[in-house]
Write a structure and sequence with these properties.
Helices cover about 25% and strands about 30% of the residues. By secondary structure, the protein is an alpha+beta fold. The chain folds into two domains: about 70 residues, Alpha-Beta Plaits, CATH 3.30.70.260; about 60 residues, Alpha-Beta Plaits (2-Layer Sandwich). The strands form three sheets. Strands 2-3-1-4 form a four-stranded antiparallel beta sheet, covered by helices on one side. A two-stranded antiparallel ribbon has the order 5-8. Strands 6-7 form a two-stranded antiparallel ribbon. Strand 6 and strand 7 form a beta hairpin. Helix 1 runs antiparallel to helix 2.
């Protein structure tokens, strides 16, 4: 999720409070927070459902806007050499080798953004994209 902090909240230990007071695990993926200015924090938050819900209420009480994020995979298809390394690790079937053309076929709607293709591609043609839902 993306947390958008109002300027007055950037001097508070928000993530510390989430961890300490609500027992949730926070993974900061990207941050753009400057003291005294509006800031954005891209995080993954996990924990017991009740704790996560309480943490979200806490964030809202601090006037922090919460925007769910959808992970997608971007593929630079034009540079692909169709080696099939990514297809061999893609268990969702989003990446498959066409038996007739022997070319890689990417079906984004089948992709679950597990990120295995990112690690498998020798040319690094896949990247993770975060979009606000």
């Amino acid at each position: 999720m993306v947390l958008t902090f109002p300027a007055e909240a950037t001097n508070e230990p928000i993530t510390y409070n989430l961890i300490k007071e609500y027992d949730v695990m926070i993974n900061i993926l990207n941050a753009d927070v400057t003291h005294g200015r509006e800031g954005n924090l891209l995080i993954e938050m996990s924990g017991k459902e009740a704790n996560v819900n309480e943490a979200l209420v806490y964030l809202e009480s601090k006037q922090i806007q919460i925007s769910p994020v959808v992970k997608t995979i971007l593929f630079s298809e034009s540079q692909c050499i169709h080696c099939g390394a990514c297809a061999s690790v893609c268990f969702s079937g989003a990446l498959e080798m066409d038996p007739a053309s022997r070319e890689l076929v990417f079906t984004p709607e089948k992709c679950i953004a597990c990120e295995l293709c990112i690690k498998a591609c020798p040319l690094q043609l896949f990247e993770l994209n975060f979009g606000v839902n």
